TrEMBL record:
Keywords: Repeat. GO terms for molecular function: adenyl-nucleotide exchange factor activity. It comes from Cardiocondyla obscurior. InterPro entries: ARM-like, ARM-type_fold, Hsp70_NEF-Inhibitors, Nucleotide_exch_fac_Fes1. One of its GO terms (cellular component) is endoplasmic reticulum. Residues 37-50 have a biased composition (Low complexity). This is Nucleotide exchange factor Fes1 domain-containing protein.
């Protein structure tokens, strides 16, 4: 609960120093330790080969080790020229404070942010929201770590989600949706707790109706992270008409919503035991909508690719209800796929070409099927 993080820039410095020392050590003989050379004397007429120093300090593996390494090395270099005295109390205090400033007590920071955001319900539409936005940004720096994400729940952090999602400020809504996505990603514990917290229907409503495009995109991102790899959440999708929300997002004018919703549907249809999802999508007319979208002239390439992936997932394992729907002559799916094969370029669209050919083979290759004439 008292996790300490070292600032990233300093960690990177320590890693670079360690790698540099390691590469220098590889160039020396295995029979002698890494040596630290003293400064060369320009007045000498002959260059004396450097000799390894005794009691060579160990190479550092962290920030504190790096500091000790530097102090030991400096002491070795100056041991013959002048005496080295212990650090006085003033210098010790300075070094301790410098090291402390490079670490952060994460739980303390998260608790401070939660305290600020607990008052978000008092924020009116014309109030300055910068303090709350800063708290959310600070929170977002830590919660992508799975252990900290779980600790965040334990300190009561999930209590801020509903008030923030219902805020009149879009900058608060999309930021908290982004945090929810980071908490849920590949984290079954947080996925379960988020469903219990009641945020799922709010996020679905945001995808459909939020006036902010960024909020809609982040809400869909959060739903995707909650659902993927978490079968229990599919019950919430059914109960809250989530598949209809995804189909409407796929037809929205916002390209990112089209791509993300099609990608999520593709992922759900590619799961093992996805027949229930496929049945639901067929009853909702997804295949008919996908066939119509694929026939659009101005369809974005990324959306087209994801639609083909969803259709491929629908007919996987020769799923008969999907095959029958794809073969309906009114959909003109066969001619649409054949037209795409003439337009797509192998150097740029090979994956899509392969999916079109595979769909034609799976859906329309049998001579007794009700194919388009």
């Amino acid at each position: 609960m008292g996790t300490l993080f070292v600032k990233q820039s300093n960690v990177n410095m320590s890693n670079r120093e360690s790698k540099k020392d390691a590469s220098q050590g590889q160039s020396n003989s295995n029979a002698r330790p890494l040596s630290i050379q003293g400064p060369s004397t320009s007045s000498s007429t002959e260059q004396t080969p450097s000799q390894p120093l005794p009691n060579q300090p160990r190479q550092p593996t962290n920030l504190q080790g790096l500091l000790k390494y530097a102090m030991d090395a400096a002491q070795s270099e100056n041991s013959e020229s002048k005496p080295v005295y212990p650090l006085d109390e003033e210098k010790k205090t300075f070094l301790n404070e410098a090291l402390s400033s490079l670490t952060v007590n994460v739980i303390d920071e998260l608790q401070k942010a939660v305290q600020i955001l607990s008052n978000v319900t008092n924020l009116r539409a014309d109030d300055d929201s910068s303090e709350y936005e800063n708290a959310l940004e600070r929170m977002a720096e830590f919660v992508d770590n799975i252990d900290i994400a779980n600790d965040f729940y334990k300190i009561g952090g999930f209590s801020i989600f509903q008030p923030c999602l219902n805020s009149s400020h879009s900058n608060i809504r999309w930021r908290v949706a982004d945090i929810i996505a980071e908490l849920a990603q590949n984290n079954p514990f947080c996925q379960n707790k988020l469903l219990e917290a009641g945020v799922f229907p709010i996020l679905l409503s945001m995808i459909d109706t939020d006036p902010s495009e960024q909020s809609r995109i982040k809400a869909l991102y959060a739903v995707s992270c909650i659902v993927r790899g978490h079968p229990a959440s599919l019950k919430f999708m059914d109960a809250n008409d989530g598949y209809s929300v995804l189909l409407r997002a796929m037809q929205s004018p916002v390209e990112k919503l089209q791509i993300k919703s099609a990608f999520l549907l593709s992922s759900l249809c590619s799961r093992d035991d996805a027949n229930d999802v496929k049945y639901t999508l067929i009853k909702m007319g997804f295949i008919e909508q996908a066939a119509g979208l694929l026939g659009r002239i101005n369809l974005q390439p990324t959306v087209r690719e994801q639609l083909l992936r969803v259709l491929s997932g629908m007919v996987n394992d020769n799923f008969l209800p999907a095959l029958k729907e794809c073969r309906r002559s009114q959909l003109c799916l066969r001619s649409t796929l054949e037209q795409l094969l003439t337009e797509l370029k192998p150097m740029e669209n090979q994956d899509e070409i392969d999916m079109c050919a595979d769909l034609l083979d799976k859906v329309f290759s049998e001579p007794d099927t009700n194919q388009e004439r």
